[in-house]
Amino acid sequence: MFRELRRKRQALSRADCEAVLSRGTSGVLALAGDDGYPYAVPLSYLYEDGKLLFHCAKAGHKLDAVARCDKASFCVIDQDRVVPEEYTTYFRSVIAFGEVREVTDEAAKRRAIERLALKYAPDDSEANRAAAIDREWGALCVLELRIEHLSGKESTALAKERAKA
């Protein structure tokens, strides 16, 4: 169903892919957009328990695309260091594939947005986070991508470094 990575020596393990998702702060969600055009949108996210969580408005291109086709991919670039003298980049990235759904249970939605807020504002007080969430709650939607397939790859140079360690 999902393609195998062609350059297997550069493949990241499942644990390494999950580590990239855990430490990342943004990625690109790719959906089937309007009129057959792909729609790829950069988003903040939370990764936990084999799922990716995103917040968005209750209306717009993302939700229209998800309603039309719930299949999606999400890409996170962990490293992208240009090495001009070698005409290359030292990169590491992960792509997650799965189905997206709106979190409709109010308690689950609240837990998800609280964890997202904690990830991006860990030093803020609980009271300030709660106030910010309450202020935006009426217009807030939470999406969940359940990961069905996870693939990661790094440059040959980084793969060699990892093999030496």
Number of helices in the DSSP assignment: 5
Average residue pLDDT: 93
Distance between the termini: 33 Å
**Beta-strand level of the residues, as a percent range?**
35-45%
* Secondary-structure element pattern, one letter each: HEEEEHEEHHEH
Strand order in the sheet with the most strands = 2-1-5-6-7-4-3
Low-confidence stretches: none
Number of strands: 7
Mind telling me the C-alpha Rg? 18 Å
What is the global morphology? globular
SSE class = alpha+beta
- Helical content stands at 25-40%
**Main sheet specs:** 7 strands, antiparallel
Keywords, separated by commas or semicolons:
single chain, 165 residues, alpha+beta, 5 helices
Mind explaining what this structure looks like?
The mean pLDDT is 93. This protein starts with 13 loop residues before the first helix and ends with a helix. With 165 residues, it is an alpha+beta fold. The protein is built from five helices and seven strands, in the order αββββαββααβα. The protein has helices at 14-23, 61-68, 106-120, 126-136, 156-164, and strands at residues 27-32, 38-43, 46-48, 51-57, 71-83, 88-102, 140-154. Strands 2-1-5-6-7-4-3 form a seven-stranded antiparallel beta sheet, with helices on both faces.
What does this entry show, briefly?
With 165 residues, this protein is of the alpha+beta class. Helix content is 32%, strand content 39%. It is globular and about 50 Å long.
